[in-house]
Amino acid sequence: RHPMPYGNLEEQLCMRFASYEDLDKFKCTIEEREEFEPHIDNGMVVYAGVDYEVILRQAEEEADVILWDGGNNDIPFYASDLHIVVVDPHRPGHETSYHPGETNLRMADIAIINKIDSADPARVEAVKEAIIKNNPQAKIIMANSPITVENPDSVKGKKVLVVEDGPTLTHGEMAYGAGVIAAEKLGAGELIDPRPYALGSIKGTFAKYGHLSRLLPAMGYGKTQIEELEQTINNSPAEVVVIGTPIDLRRVMSIDKPAVRVRYDLEEIGHPQLAELLAKVL
């Protein structure tokens, strides 16, 4: 995974994550956990750190396949055999208006358009046209992103506080995420505006990113900010907290009200499919 240098860099030259305990060992922030935990949940080992020569050599000793996870559109540090890019139809135009996102799109062997089931068809077509225009050789995979919610009946008619992935909402410029989509689909009675209940740096985040209102970005770049996020959640009058982040926030804080997790997956439509294209390389 591309570097996330939030701590003591000398202690983070080469970090190996194979369990939740490893995340605790290296004092990972919420932002790091959001990137590492889904891979761990899928049974994969994650490496990250500072010295990517050392990281690569160590990973080569135990892996048959090495996957570079570029995170926030980061260009890979390694020469790869296959370059895959995901293009978000909820943000048409971002694929060509941001660096290094556009560079990655132009380098891609495969471009995946996901979230088709929740995006405006015109926006889906717009990003598809952008792929064809900027990288006509790329294979395009179309996919839904089906959303699942634990205990979905607990959301209907309730006052809901939605907590979404922080970076997606802040510098990612989204005003909603999977949590909001799920809460609205399940008939939430009200999506609570968390701004009156925000504390410290969380209040500052809302001041900086004025497009946010009916949801709470899961900011957690350190112990103090995680505590402020916890207090903001617990200060709210929510009857249910919908956790739309890639991790279960209940592992890193105490939420004093019922909470449910939202997840989404990849459901490919038609052909080509990713497995077919990977089989030509692996």
UniProtKB/TrEMBL annotation:
Coiled coil: none
One Pfam family this sequence matches: cobW
Organism: Syntrophomonas wolfei
Domain of life: Bacteria
InterPro entries in the cross-refs: cDPG_synthetase-like, CobW/HypB/UreG_nucleotide-bd, P-loop_NTPase
Domain CobW/HypB/UreG nucleotide-binding: 78-141
Name of the protein described by the UniProt record: GTPase
